[in-house]
Known about the structure:
The chain is built from seven helices and 23 strands. By secondary structure, it is α+β, with helices and mostly antiparallel strands.
Amino acid sequence: MGGLTAMGLACGPTTSAPAVAAPAGRPDPFRLGVASGDPRPDGMVLWTRLSPRPLAEDGLGGMGSKPVEVRWQVASDARFRKVVRQGTATARPSGGFAVHVEPSGLEPGREYFYRFRAQGHLSPAGRTRTAPARGSLAPMTFAAASCSHYEHGYFTAYRRMAAQDPDLVLHLGDYLYEYAPGSYGGSNGIVRRHTAGKCQTLTDYRRRHAQYKSDPDLRAAHAAAPWAVIWDDHELEDNWAGSSPGSGVPGFTARKRAAMRAYYENMPLRASSRPSGTKMQLFRRLSWGSLASFHLLDTRQYRTDQPCDDWLRTGCDSRTNPSHRVLGGRQLKWLESGLRSSGARWDVLAQQIFFAQRDFALGPAVTVGMDAWDGYTAERDRVFDAVQRSGARNPVVLTGDVHTAFASDLLRDFDDPSSARVGVELVATSIASDGDGYRDRGVNAALLAENPHFAFVDQRRGYILGRLTPEALTADFHTLEHVSRRGAPARRAARFTVPDGARSLAR
């Protein structure tokens, strides 16, 4: 640390321009914004990536080939009059000119502000916070989001989410999409275009990340609060599972290595998540005092290939195969151990794929998706066993992936509506994927009728805003009427409450 003095410049958490005059002839390197993540009681990770030309064809944002010194500050006030931590880091071409800083020694349970300086430019300032100290039961607000396909719509939902001032944002995967321009259309067509080609190389993934971060609404959401991120499939390739690609395109190992490296470079992740080849330590745990433990799961990297060719199937016997895994043995043991030792009022499993049974067929036949937990029923039972053995007081599963909002009870036996309630599942719809969406076209009503454990279905775009207190979880589903045009307001479409100890939605 050291070398940077307090500048005392007015630069609030959503400022988009430097507070000092830019040097002549040198472009702003902070066009991808700033972010923070993975808060602990004494600190968090701070991120930026230098990129004056985000879509430069070499994937390095126009930064050239020389390392750049980046100065950083953390302050207890938005005007940076009380700088409490400061130092320098080096942005290197080998890391895509990204910077990950992990300040420590901060006070628990409080708000901070941070910013960077490089090449004579001052970054926008971000707002972040530390987690409360162990023992605290102070209420907290979290947001849950997923699935932001750039071509399908504008990211208005991110800005609406940021305006809610969450203490923590949980991103549940599909932060970006790997598809070539126009190859995956939404319900209202293509609104804006991806960079050229399907992502296959490190340069491709770096440019795609830069394109997404060029969106001002996404940058605003990152600057508003710390994030905890986990991937799903599209950060690499649709429906990948462990060592199995999701497509017949050759070179999966090289794509996997490139995608993991670009994901780390562009996310506010700690050094413990830095990838090594084709492995990346992404499952981890965040404690929020004694109120909540957030168990962030990785349902892609250790998974057995999907049974019956990935998609909706009726009568797929192999989906019950006990050797088929989603979490893998090590992650499952880690989860059970964490649940057992948590002691938190609320245990939140933040993960990617639909957990409850979702039967699409009316009548006695069961038609379910193979890329969800329905394709791995023995592994789902193992998770249920782990939850029940641990004695977790209030289990909650947070899910993304399906571009539809759901609220559901989790039944020990989904074929028996009177079965014991193990917990609840809250599914965040997409930020933009599949376009404007709809409230109901008969499909949603049919899903509710066929799946009595469901309490809510809505296929519009939006996010979840959750409020945790010692007494209850309140989950508000916010939706937007359209994303094919900018500026839609977010309205609360539904609210559900889970009282402490109920393990079931209050309907």
